[in-house]
Structures are given as structure tokens and as C-alpha cells.
Amino acid sequence: MSLWNPANDGLLRALAEGAHAAGAAVLSQATHMGRRASSVASGVPLQAPSAVAEAVHREVPGRLHATDIDRIVACFAAAAVRLQACGWDGIEITSFGGHLIEQFWSPSVHRRTDRYRGSFENRTRFAVEVLEAIGRAVRDDFLVSFRMTADPATPELGLDPDDMPEIAARLDRVGRIDLFDISGGTGATLLAQAGTVPPDHLPEKVYNPLARAVREVVSAPVLVAGRILTPEAGEASLVAGDADLVAMTRAIIADPDLPAKTRRGERDRIRPCIAINESCIGRLYSGMPISCAVNPFMRDPRRLPSPAADPRRVLVPGGGPAGMEAARVASERGHRVELWERERELGGQVRWAARMPYRPSLGRHVSWLAREL
Description:
The chain is α/β, with parallel strands linked by helices and about 375 residues long. It has helices at about 10-20, 40, 65-85, 100-105, 120-125, 125-135, 165-170, 190-195, 210-215, 230-240, 250-255, 260-265, 280-285, 320-330, 350-355, 360-370; strands spanning about 25-30, 45-50, 60-65, 90-95, 145-150, 180-185, 220-225, 245, 315, 335-340.
């Protein structure tokens, strides 16, 4: 979604109205990707603090001139103004994943000789200018969140976990951040990039210690993101004082009703995220709309089961995940369903794949299907 394009205003208004009607506040992330982008995809030459290619995309960017930087700062503010005019509650500025703001912080990526180079104050200057410009452009009650890594997990940037809370504290002193959104990893290497959306081989609540370190040095509330898949994990994060809020992005893609089911005491009916990243992140990075490996209805709510006009007897052969889902949906529509499986357990080949030590969540989905059946 191009926040700079007025052609999208109608869609932005509709999305905000829909979220508000459902009882939610809504913020949009806004970013400039710098060297993380692709001129092949955009048709626009890359620009970055310095002409230093990234190891993943390997495209050499052009060096931003001072007038380019001023223009980009103004564009961040203009995006905030557009969101405010379209009824949104706020904006989330993101440096996360190795985007332009993070590139300015990096002493190894950033080789300028002007006011953005060298000292800690200079390297954080661009982020401060963006926040100050937004603060001048929007109402005081328009929320400003800031999303950042608290551990790039690579030496490539010349930044480590001790540097990141210091950067957060510097941005907090601007006085315009209402929320810090903290996670880990960056986009500078393939391995560090994998950590930005932590897969199943990483432990649950993997970035909670990072969020706690930032929370100790800033005045704004802190949200933690990264493998918080269940209400229990979210509650434990808050009780422990790791964060003030928790992000459960993939978990709520898998089951948008997770909060409502939790409130109703129906936690065992929450469709679980299995954190394989194939349908959500994999499709997104391939230029396709996101889907979900365990929730086919997330892509198109019009596919949600409706009562059958002519209920019938249905036989489903095979109790793997596809057969179980077919039986579950047919029964929900009012058909009289029998599912036949020759093995003693349901789940098909997923039962075997879930025994791998790096796939602890994989079996959760077939267990959920079995309970639903």
C-alpha cells in the first residue's frame, strides 16, 4: 500500500472504518527501504546513505544527497497527515528489517561525511528528524509508534544488543513516540533476515529479553513481537514485566478470533499458528497476497462455511490434515459426516514431520482438528 499515493485514500478510509467498527484501533507502518528495495520491482533507482550493497539483494544503491534526505523526511510527515485525514489512529515508523533508518544507524553501511556521519548523535539524526517532522504535522492525539530491532543478530552492521537500547532512549527523548515495537534480527544477511519473522526452531517469546532491555530505558510503553503464539505466552510476557503489550501477528492470522475466544474461555478452540512462514511470509516475499497454511478462510472471508441448502451424508476417506478439514467444514455446514482413517491416529504424514526437533508446533494443527472433529 503506497501511503504517498492519493489514489489509495478511499481504501485507507474503508480499512480504518472497518477496523473501528470491529472495536479496534488501527495504525499503518510506514517505511523507506533504502538499499533493501529492488529497482527491478519498483522501476526506481535505489537510494541509501552510502553506495554500499546489501549481501542479500546485492544491488548497489545511489548515495542520498542532503536534499533527497529532506524530501524523504517530508514524505514521512505527509504519510502521517494522509493517514490522519483518512481516519487512522496513528502511524508506525519502522527501521526494522534493515530499512533506511537502520541503515543510517549502522557505522559499517553508512560512510557519509556530512551531518549524519560519525558520532552517535549524527547517526541517529535522520530518525530524530523524521519523528520531529511527524510531530509538527499531526495532532497530539495521533499515535506514533516506532518499530525497531533490539539485536540485529549479525556483526555486518556494526551494531550490537548494547547499542539498540541506547538508540531507543535517544528517540524516546524526542517526546513524540507513544509506543516502541521491539523485535530482533535484520535484513543484512539471510540468517539475520530469517530471525525477523522467527520460525519454529526458535523458542517461544524469543525476543522478550530484548524488549525488557528497551523497556528499562524508555518512558513510552513497549510492545514485544516474536513467537508469542498463545494467550498463555502473551499473559506470561506481561506478568513478567517483559513488555506492556504483545504482538501476535501470525497467531491472529491463523485465528482472527483468538482474542474473542480467549475472553470466552475457549482457548482450546483457538486454531493454532504453526510458524512455518510459508503462506504468510513466503507468499508476501514472492509478490503474492498472503494466506495461511492452517486457515484457508483468512485469504477470502467469503469462503467461510455457510449452511448447506441440501444437507447430505458425506464420506471423507483419509484422516490427514486435508481430510480432517474437509470433514470439519462439511459438518459445520450441516452435513452428516463420516471420516475413515486406516491408522490408529489422525494427522497423516504431519504426525511424523512433527517429530522433528525443529518443528515443535507442526502437530498443533492436527491436534486442533482432532478436537474440533
